Fold:
Amino acid sequence: MSMAGATKKLEPKISKHEKLYTLAVAKRDSISGLVSKALDNNKVTDDEFRIINSEISQYRGLKASVRIKFKKPDSPHAPNLDKIRKEIRDEEREKLQKKIRSLSAESKLDLKK
Structure:
């Protein structure tokens, strides 16, 4: 792989990680400030706790949205696992039904004897 190819392949990853890093630092600073303020009086009120949890939830949501934005679409060559599972289930179900019919027919023959 050439340098240009490697650079082209790594640029989106670098951009994603830079955005996640910036987001993490900003939220860390925000949460750190809120925790410090809450601990000034050695007591965390319900409102302070709710705000801190809200900031953490917001960070997780933003992080997920950044990851989704940079996620590659599924490769057209990737196997469709749901389709494969369904095909295998259908095949096995058909085999089982044939076996049941065969055993049922045999038991009917045994009853006639």
About this structure: The chain is about 85% helix and 0% strand.
